[in-house]
Design goal:
CATH topology of one domain: Rossmann fold
Mean pLDDT: 94
Largest sheet: 7 strands, parallel
Low-confidence stretches: none
Structural class: alpha/beta
Strand content: 15-25%
Radius of gyration: 20 Å
Distance between the termini: 50 Å
CATH superfamily of one domain: NAD(P)-binding Rossmann-like Domain
Helix content: 25-40%
Number of helices: 11
CATH class of one domain: Alpha Beta
Order of helices and strands: EHEHEEHEEHEEEEHEEEHEEHEEHHHH
CATH architecture of one domain: 3-Layer(aba) Sandwich
Strand order of the largest sheet: 3-2-1-4-5-7-14
């Protein structure tokens, strides 16, 4: 009998792809999200969907007799998806995690997969060295990711407590941006709505508009594609280990220069390529690297998608809109946010 996995936050970016990947890997998947309806998306995949408010303990009652063995919890607010609301971050991340753990304890589900933020290791971001998954956690003292990091750290501490008290296995996945096509190209940054920077670059390239590279073009970043990320989720759900902290990095750390040239190569029309210029007087982009050797050793993580392959698949999904029934289309969000950015 296949393990039964509950995916929380299944209508969100990571949750939707993870639910489908787990189903394709042979797991018996139950999807749950805040939305009342998934518009029939999961039913078409052979996945049951339930509307769950993770901030309310009683909301889990509908799942108590489902025989759930593993919980992949991708629910909770993100600073990039809402105007700054500290209470919502604490409520939907820290307090909700307690609800999830209590549900698991009462129903004898013994494994949790949980995402966390690399901002818990912010003090190591500019060292120029790959960051260990087991480095001491902290949080930024200020900024739009400060309380988010505090909420995530508290949630992880609760998970560690239930690991020690009740023998839960736990797979805490740490990563920067997971790149994927979502029809909503907009987010909040510093409490203001704007188009995501990499989506704006793709938009410029598709129109053949000039693009300027700011700061040091040799600075690198991790660029992980969603279809590599879901392989870690599937591996964690399958693992017999107690788990721990696992960094998720990319097969090649991509320089800012390579990033921009790749976007122009894939998204600009052949007869109207964007012209690239440089302005070293502008501030440098963040440079942080994650050591994912433990993820490789314990979960068999071998990223498949090179940077260019990722961009090509991204462009393909942008055209095909495979999650349109769940999320809508890009044109809907462009119209929705046109007067807000």
């Amino acid at each position: 009998m296949n393990k039964k996995v509950l995916v929380l936050g299944a209508t969100g970016n990571l949750g939707a792809y993870s639910a489908v990947a787990l189903k394709n890997a042979g797991f018996d998947v139950i999807a749950a999200g805040r939305r009342e309806s998934d518009n029939g998306f999961f039913e078409e995949m052979g996945i049951s969907y339930y509307s769950i408010d993770i901030t309310k303990k009683e909301s889990f009652d509908v799942l108590v007799d489902k025989g759930i063995e593993v919980v992949a919890d991708f629910a909770g607010e993100l600073p990039s998806r809402c105007a700054f609301n500290p209470q919502a971050l604490i409520r939907t991340i820290t307090e909700a995690t307690m609800n999830v753990l209590e549900f698991m304890r009462k129903t004898n589900a013994k494994k949790i997969i949980f995402p966390t933020t690399p901002y818990d290791l912010f003090y190591l971001h500019e060292t120029g060295k790959p960051i260990s998954p087991d480095a001491a956690r902290s949080y930024p003292e200020k900024g739009d990711h400060s309380i988010y990091s505090i909420a995530k750290n508290a949630a992880v501490d609760l998970i560690e407590n239930y690991h020690n008290e009740y023998g839960f296995s736990r797979f805490i996945l740490r990563f920067f941006t997971i790149y994927q096509y979502h029809p909503n190209a907009y987010h909040y940054a510093d409490c203001k709505m704007r188009m995501m920077p990499y989506r704006e670059l793709m938009e410029k390239a598709s129109k053949g508009e000039p693009i300027c590279i700011y700061g040091d073009p040799s600075r690198v970043k991790e660029m992980v594609y969603i279809k590599d990320f879901t392989k870690v989720v599937v591996a964690a759900a399958s693992s017999e280990l107690d788990g721990g902290f696992y960094n998720i990095g990319s097969p090649e750390r991509v320089s800012l220069d390579k990033m921009i040239h790749g976007i122009v190569e894939v998204f600009s029309p052949m007869d109207n390529k964007s012209e690239i210029s440089y302005d070293p007087s502008k501030p440098n982009t963040l440079q942080s690297m994650l050591d994912w050797s433990k993820t490789k050793a314990e979960l068999g993580y071998e990223p498949e998608y090179t940077y260019i392959k990722m961009l090509e698949d991204f462009k393909k999904e942008m055209k095909e809109e495979p999650f349109a029934k769940l999320w809508g289309t890009g044109s809907y969000y462009d119209e929705l946010y046109k007067d807000k950015v």
